[in-house]
Amino acid sequence: MLELNLPKYKYRIEQRDGKLAIFDPIRKKFIVLTPEEWVRQHFLNYLNEHLNYPTTLTSVESGLKYNTRSKRSDILIMDNSLKPLVLVECKAPSVAINQGTIRQLSVYNAVYNAKLLVVTNGMVTHAVLSSESSSSYEPLSQIPDYNHLKALI
């Protein structure tokens, strides 16, 4: 698989039903290894192991309803009150981060109202802090660690 602009880690890959699968420690099972899943697992590791976001408050591919459509968010991290804190949209490395991917994230956040929004393809990552008092977003040059984010909001 492609080397990403994210920290390396010791992942577990196995052959399952004739396909490669990577272990997801949040869902506690092997998931078919697609380019998007490769990014998602690396980003989960980055958030949980390097930036100290709690795995106990992290969910992967959470279902949500937008209007009458069912959607799935890639990564959702809650705060200690179980309110959405971080929403991450992951794309395959070959998918450009553009207005369409950012719009998808904002549609999902209309449901969640998370404070930190991130979109990544593993090569390029953009993060913004959502303002509660208005519908404005503050671009961030880096993703804050868990304790720093809690201090920001």
UniProtKB/TrEMBL annotation:
Residues 35-144 form the Type I restriction enzyme R protein N-terminal domain. Pfam families: HSDR_N_2 (PF13588). InterPro entries: HSDR_N. It comes from the Bacteria. This is Type I restriction enzyme R protein N-terminal domain-containing protein. It comes from Roseivirga misakiensis. The lineage of its organism: Bacteria, Pseudomonadati, Bacteroidota, Cytophagia, Cytophagales.
